[in-house]
Amino acid sequence: MTVVHPGVWIASISLLLSSVGYAAGPPAGVAMPVETAMVKRDNLSQRINAVGNLLANETVVIRPEISGRVADIHFKEGDPIKKGAVLITLDQGEAQARTAESQAQVQVTKVSFDRASELIKRNLISQQHLDDANAQYTAAIARLNVNQELLKKTVLTSPFDGIAGLRQVSPGDYVQPGQAIVTVLDQHLLKAEFQVPEIYIAQLRNGMEVTLSSDAYPGKQFSGKVYAIAPGVNATSRSITLRAKIKNDDNILRAGLFAHIDLQLSHNSKALVIPEEALWPMGDKQFVYQVFDGKAKLTPITTGLRLNGKVEVVAGLHEGDQVVTGGQMKLRPDAAVMSINAAAKPDSKSSGAK
Q: What phi and psi values does residue 106 have, to the nearest 5 degrees?
């Protein structure tokens, strides 16, 4: 038994009708064979594919604020470290000596100030002598504070929980202020930075879902959400930059990786959809031939998204309505039609036509 596709039937019957003078359609009372489809509810998502880079949630290069010799290194490269953990200790000899000297000076000037305070009560010294003693005591305290801060700067600590990178110094090295020593990265949460064309700017918002994949881990996907959108558009690329936070609980992703980003702009789990073949455009408006009581009704509709051969119907049709998807060329409004696709189930009581 030979199976003939419905589209072939339509072409053959149309050719036969044309040969007997029915090019504009069959005569009254003769049903035109057409292919049809039902208006259904379906998941419809608008997505954008982009590429981007992964950034650490936090990253910092540890640099000394003072010069000095590296006395001790307290971390191992690649090891996790806690906030406040000591990473590097510079030689503290000079800083400790200056601090001790300042402490002694504070004690001496305090004794002088206390003595002057007693003497002024008995009018044995002038107010000038008391003011001088007070000034010397205050200056000594200030010098002590400075030297204590310098002593603190000989100890370099981690500002947050993270992973220690590769160190750039060795014990005994003499370092200068601002010299890079080691990078600390917080990678339990990563930032995916990517760009999308400016035409989508009105649809962008924080909280949008993204799916990320990397060539480093074929077949594995990571999820996240947009948390930041750049306030301006790049004038050169006509695109806008977004950042999404990606969970990295397994710590397998690394900052700097190239990433493929799938951004979900919108999602409707109950969208009314029809096949794209059902559209019958006229000027700037869209119509479909809707089957009702065995006749083709030309129905105006409002469309939304078009994805993978499906068209979202925003207005004009209802779920369960039947529309023509093949054979429209030979149709005219109110023409009698006959569905020839076996899957179609005509519903003469469709609610879409009035």
A: -65, -45
Q: What is the spatial distance between Cα 129 and Cα 119, in angstroms, rounded to a whole number?
A: 10
Give the Cα-Cα-Cα angle 196, 216, 210 (nearest 5 degrees): 35
Nearest Cα neighbor of 72 from 94, 87, 82, 93 is 87
With H, G, I as helix, E, B as strand and everything else as coil, classify residue 330. Answer: helix
CA atoms within 13 A on the CB side of 256: 3
Q: Are strands 337-339 and 32-38 parallel, antiparallel or unpaired?
A: parallel
Give the pLDDT band (50/70/90) at residue 4. Answer: very low
Separation in Å, CA 170 to CA 174, 175, 177, 234, 349? 9, 10, 16, 43, 85
Residue-range definition of the domain harbouring residue 284: 6-46+269-339
Task: Say yes or no: 188 and 134 in one domain.
Answer: no
- Tell me the CA end-to-end span of the chain in Å, nearest whole number: 42
Q: Provide the sign of the torsion angle of the four alpha carbons 26, 31, 33, 38, taken in this order.
A: positive
| 304: number of Cβ within 10 Å | 17
User: For strand 155-157 and strand 86-90, is the pairing parallel, antiparallel, or unpaired?
Assistant: antiparallel
Put simply, whether the predicted model's pTM sits higher than 0.85 gets the answer: no
Q: Are residues 211 and 233 in the same domain?
A: yes
CA distance 51 to 42: 28
Residues 128 and 188 in one domain: no
pLDDT score of 354: 38
d(CA 94, CA 104) in angstroms, rounded, equals 16
DSSP 161: S
Residue 226 belongs to a domain: yes
Element spanning 120, H or E? helix 93-121
Of 226, 167, 161, residue with least CA distance to 200: 226
